[in-house]
Design brief:
The protein contains 18 helices and three strands. It is mostly helical and about 400 residues long. The protein has a three-stranded antiparallel beta sheet.
């Protein structure tokens, strides 16, 4: 019978729960919130989360006065043309009424009715001024080209709400670049994890043997995994360099690539370079996880099998693999999730190029959020990747995990 947790026992968990909430749950909730807004830092009208429109009284007063000043300056040049003089006077009067009507609006939130009235009045005055200069062209007018820009700034006095609801998620289905990045991510994950599993299992079998100097072999095998990923990517970028890289030269001599330059400057070559680097970097991690599983297998089973006449191959397929299945599940699951979220390796080695041929979901999300400063849609991409990771974990645990952990 299980005992219920007491309040005093729960208090010991409070610091852990607070840390988990601050560093795990809160960032996820924040990203999820951004997905419902068209949040962009490179656009002043969308640089904050807003359910309602806002009005900048200072910007309105400044730009509306510029409209009046510029019209007044060109009105003096129209004194010799009675028709132009009359139309300029009418435009100035309309501009003044426009200023008087909306200058009293308070700074801050603005209702949809007020926003619509202001936008309509601005468009009407803008069209009137454009028609004025079109009907009375004169080289003496100095502000004909400046006034359209002033009206553009004037229109920005009203910032519409950037709440878009589920529109960001709907945008995913028409985003070809996102699905291309998903394809690159899946391809990279499947190929790299498959190779790492085969090599990691072979390395784990070697490190599991009781031979002289095995400690040194284990330490040496873990060196690639101990090197930071960004450093590894930088080292391998020198090896792949088209002009001085030894690996690109050897691959070209062996006929694997057409020229040393095509290693990082062609799509297939760049993807192969990324996969090769990842295999070198993380195969020791896979081997370490599998080695932990091999250490739990009773060696007496192999001795009994040898007495019964079983060879090494039979012992591997009848004893090692069946008993290693739980460790295989953990190792492959961890590596699959890690490979699916790959960022630093590709960011340093190829930057997602050439032509986006190695751009993964993480790289695409980073470019959207920080290069384009589009945090709204960038968060949608992050949530899409989050759902993909959940599906992968569920697939392993519910489908493969049930088969691997079940008694045979």
């Amino acid at each position: 019978m299980q005992k219920k947790m007491t309040f005093r026992q729960f208090l010991f968990l409070v610091p852990l729960l607070l840390i988990l909430a601050a560093f795990a749950i809160w960032p996820i909730l924040t990203s999820f919130t951004y997905t419902f807004f068209d949040y962009r830092l490179n656009d002043m009208q969308k640089s904050r989360l807003s359910f309602t429109g806002s009005f900048s009284a200072a910007r309105f007063r400044e730009n509306s006065q510029y409209v009046k000043i510029f019209l007044s300056g060109d009105a003096e040049a129209a004194e010799k043309d009675p028709a132009a003089k009359k139309d300029f006077a009418a435009a100035l009067a309309d501009a003044q009424r426009y200023i008087d009507r909306f200058s009293s609006l308070p700074d801050g939130k603005i209702s949809a009715q007020q926003s619509g009235a202001l936008s309509s009045a601005t468009e009407k005055l803008k069209a009137e001024v454009a028609a004025l200069y079109q009907n009375h062209p004169d080289p003496a007018y100095e502000n004909a080209e400046s006034l359209p820009k002033i009206f553009e700034e004037l229109e920005k006095s009203v910032s519409p709400p950037n709440f878009i609801g589920l529109a960001g998620y709907a945008k995913i289905f028409g985003d070809g670049r996102l699905f291309a990045a998903l394809g690159h991510t899946v391809y990279f994950t499947l190929v790299s994890v498959a190779i790492e599993f085969v090599l990691g299992l072979a390395l784990a079998l070697v490190m599991n043997r009781s031979v002289r100097g095995i400690g040194l072999i284990r330490a040496g095998a873990l060196i690639p995994w101990a090197i930071p990923t960004a450093v590894s990517a930088l080292i391998w970028s020198y090896l792949y360099d088209g002009s001085s890289g030894i690996l690109s030269y050897l691959f070209a001599q062996a006929g694997l690539i057409s020229s040393p330059q095509s290693m990082l400057l062609s799509g297939p070559g760049a993807m192969a370079a990324v996969i090769l680097t990842d295999v070198w970097k993380t195969t020791p991690y896979m081997a370490l996880l599998l080695l932990a599983g091999l250490q739990t297998i009773d060696r007496g089973l192999y001795e009994s099998a040898a007495i019964d006449g079983a060879g090494p191959a039979q012992a591997f397929f009848r004893i090692t693999l069946p008993l290693l299945k739980p460790s295989i599940l953990v190792a492959v699951l961890f590596r699959t999730l890690d490979a699916f979220r790959v960022y630093d390796l590709i960011a340093v080695l190829t930057g997602g190029g050439p032509g986006g041929s190695t751009e993964t979901l993480s790289v695409y999300a980073y470019k959207t959020m920080f290069s384009q400063t589009n945090f709204g849609y960038g968060s949608v991409v992050v949530m899409f990747m989050f759902v993909c990771v959940l599906l992968i974990a569920a697939l392993f645990v519910k489908v493969l995990g049930a088969n691997m952990l079940s008694a045979e």
